[in-house]
Specification:
- The chain is of the alpha+beta class.
- It has 8 helices and 10 strands.
- It has 2 domains: 81 residues, Arc Repressor Mutant, subunit A (Orthogonal Bundle), CATH 1.10.10.10; 163 residues, 3-Layer(aba) Sandwich (Chorismate lyase), CATH 3.40.1410.
- Helices cover 30% and strands 31% of the residues.
- Helix 3 packs across helix 4.
- The chain starts with a helix and ends in an 8-residue tail after the last strand.
Length: 253
């Protein structure tokens, strides 16, 4: 369902000029409608062109308002599609190695994946170090985009030691996930997470449907079985669509 630009024009005019800059008044207006629940998750906002025309403001002003609303996690901007009221951020456990398909289904939503690439290659120096293998060793490499209700929430870039999963390249990762398959053939012994905030590359923006200025959460995950490294994965999540959560007891403080 789309939000009518006439409604935005009426609401904006009703607010008056106020004392703040125009971009802030746009932000405040849209934020109020979303937080109050009057504008619901998934609703389509008018385009930048429509807002410029309806509000009589410059493109720079409207763009700044939408850009900051996206950074705040209230809207999602998808290149070539439009700007939508964001769903509430989904949560992932920080201290556990979980399967993303199970997380999505636990929330009552639908998971699907698109395989970008799946191949064997020689490990460069960085990959070899990550997997604790000699440089130029054969490794399996997969890239997938995971979707929740058709919204891209993770770009998975994974390298696998073929010794533990010799049939990795034969799997249909639209029907199962790399995590599920690897756990079935190489039971998880332990995992490692390193989390950082990054800006996506142009290629990553295209795959996740992001604007280049949108920050992302990056999880670098390594998993071991029988004290040997099985895989090294780079998991990239749009910051406006995802959050990490964890708990700990007094002994871990």
């Amino acid at each position: 369902m789309a939000i009518d630009e006439v409604d935005i024009r009426s609401l904006f005019r009703a607010r008056g000029q106020g004392s703040g800059p125009a971009y802030q008044r746009i932000k405040d207006l849209i934020s109020e409608q979303i937080v109050s629940g009057r504008w619901r998750e998934g609703e389509l906002l008018p385009s930048e062109n429509q807002l410029v025309s309806a509000l009589g403001l410059s493109r720079m002003t409207v763009n700044r308002a939408l850009r900051e609303l996206s950074t705040d996690g209230l809207v999602v901007r998808i290149i070539g599609v439009g700007t939508f009221v964001a769903e509430r951020k989904v949560s992932s456990a920080l201290f556990e190695v979980r399967n993303i398909a199970d997380e999505i289904e636990r929330r009552g939503h639908r998971h699907r994946a698109e395989v970008i690439s799946l191949c064997e290659q020689s490990a460069d120096s960085v990959t070899a170090q990550e997997l604790e293998l000699p440089e130029d060793s054969p490794v399996f490499h997969s890239r997938l985009v995971h979707f929740e209700n058709d919204l891209a929430i993770q770009l998975e870039d994974r390298f696998v030691n073929p010794e533990f999963a010799p049939r990795y390249l034969d799997q249909d990762f639209t029907a199962t996930t790399p995590n599920t398959y690897l756990v079935s053939v190489a039971p998880l012994g332990r995992g490692e997470h390193v989390v950082e905030a990054v800006l996506p590359t142009a290629d990553e923006c295209g795959l996740l449907g992001l604007i280049e200025s949108e920050p992302c959460l990056l999880i670098r995950r390594r998993t071991w079985s029988e004290d040997r490294l099985v895989s090294s994965a780079r998991l990239l999540h749009p910051g406006s669509r995802y959050r990490l959560a964890g708990t700990f007891d007094a002994q871990t403080q």
